Amino acid sequence: DAKTTQPPSMDCAEGRAANLPCNHSTISGNEYVYWYRQIHSQGPQYIIHGLKNNETNEMASLIITEDRKSSTLILPHATLRDTAVYYCIVRAHNTNAGKSTFGDGTTLTVKP
Amino acid sequence: NAGVTQTPKFRVLKTGQSMTLLCAQDMNHEYMYWYRQDPGMGLRLIHYSVGEGTTAKGEVPDGYNVSRLKKQNFLLGLESAAPSQTSVYFCASSRRRGLYEQYFGPGTRLTVT
B56: nearest CA in chain A? Predict the structure, then answer.
């Protein structure tokens, strides 16, 4: 699995867009980028994933650079409830979860 | 739908004691997982199952055993608990392999003294 690098923490003003970066320079051609988040003391929650095209769902948008070495998760209008640890994980899509470490993630704090 | 539920929510064990953590899901998912999360760290995969009657090792399987006798249940056992197994344990399930859309339970907070 490719290694990912995320900033340890970020702040965002409520109502503004939150842009969370992730570097994955050693990503392989068959590896997807997944984003999960974990609100304090709860189980993680799936947000979005993508291979090379930009993706959008009701929660967020995922922008992957053309060389696929980095990506950005965008929460378009952050609310206080979006305060959480955000994990960027790179894995092949249809492999069994033999190794599935979530890493340290980015702690996003949304401020009023 | 209850989603993924975990029993118990909290437990304190003494070194050497045994216990079983129960995970149940009502989404008819084929795949189920057990993770542990140590303070201030991300999740690490302990064991997983790709269907009823199957189990496989994850990244940190030592000291744990699992069973999946029914599709909806995934049990995690500690035969002889050690202080190093103090952690929060999360169960998850999904309908597809890998990291695609895993649904997580609320966690079990285990302390081994």
Answer: A98
